[in-house]
Amino acid sequence: MDIVILAIESSCDETGAAIIRNGKIVSNIVTTQAVHKRYGGIVPELASRAHQQNIIPVVTKALQDANITKRMLHAVAFTQGPGLLGALLVGASFAKSLAFALDIPLIAVHHMKAHILANFINNPKPTFPFLCLTVSGGHTQLVLVKDYLTMELIGETQDDAMEEAFDKIAKLMGLPYPGGPRIDRYAQHGNPHRFAFPATTVPHLNFSFSGIKTAFLYFLRENQKRDPSFVEKNLYDLCASIRATLIAMALDKLRKAAKQTNIQNIAIAGGVAANAGLRNRLTQLAQEEGWRIFIPSLAYCTDNAAMVAMTAYYQYLAGNFCNLCVSPMPRMPL
Ligand code: KG4
Ligand code: ZN
């Protein structure tokens, strides 16, 4: 049977549309919103307006690239949450209207599950069960993935997400938004052993990333008192050292989770999974621990509609549809 699904992603600042045909992504269009750069962070109201402008061109291009007409669709999927409410509403309203007009099923997709299923877009694909460290803009989670649609949250951050630590620390060093990718770039030229920062920890498989940010602030203040150009002189080593610390904090818990569950299939997902330091360190760790690892290609780490389409495909096979009155959910448990 031919199954063709259009998926829409609009949870934050990327407007995305993708077509999946019989489990294969045949088009994937993402438009990033440049408007937020000058504000040093995402402005929700501006994100909604940009989605409103982008959604029709992005969907039109996704259909064209896949050589598909609207009439050939079997279902329309959208990101239900978590995310910014105004941003989610744009994707939800569009998807509902299209499903209503075409009289085809509507599929509501959980954004964090979609990040995890990005691991199924390319080969090699994980086998179940596997553990996933999901590190996105707002979340840092450890998930036990039992099946495409059955996932258990086994650990998460108690305060800031890993990404927020990256971004806030970058800001303390005067780097422009978004700071995380910039720290990652500069770190490649620095010495990760030059500065030591106190990695904080919390019980069980949970994370805490707020203490390290404060420790970094005091460390900078102290050094800048002595030398006002401390950051400029040591930028690469600072980036390398803090990146290594943050990665060690995250991977420590991943290792603990692997031991506790006795699972050696390990994946990562989310925007921070694009971090070169994290990808490299995970690859080394996999050799030490005997893990099989799965890392999505860069385009499928940050927000995209292909991962929503992949999740929608498995929901379609499971008959997991929603009615047209469904609401977007800014917060949504896994
Ligand atoms: O998963 P994602 O696209 O959006 C959410 O679901 O929130 O994650 C976006 C985040 C951004 O904050 C971005 O700065 C971060 O992922 N990011 C990175 C890197 N590339 C993207 N953080 C650290 N290092 C990177 N190389
Ligand atoms: Zn995301």
Structure description:
- With 334 residues, the chain is α/β, with parallel strands linked by helices.
- The protein has two domains: 4-116 and 303-317, ATPase, nucleotide binding domain (Nucleotidyltransferase, domain 5), CATH 3.30.420; 127-295, Nucleotidyltransferase, domain 5 (2-Layer Sandwich), CATH 3.30.420.
- The chain is 43% helix and 18% strand.
- The chain is built from nine helices and ten strands.
- The chain has helices spanning 44-66, 85-102, 111-117, 162-172, 179-187, 210-226, 230-261, 276-289, 306-317; strands spanning 4-9, 14-21, 24-32, 75-81, 106-110, 130-135, 140-145, 151-156, 265-269, 292-294.
- It has a five-stranded mixed β-sheet, with helices on both faces. Strands 8-7-6-9-10 form a five-stranded mixed β-sheet, sandwiched between helices.
- Strand 7 and strand 8 (151-156) form a beta hairpin.
- Helix 4 crosses helix 5 (179-187) and helix 4 (162-172) packs antiparallel against helix 7 (230-261).
- The longest helix has 32 residues, at 230-261.
- It is globular and about 70 Å long.
- The model has no long low-confidence stretch (mean pLDDT 97).
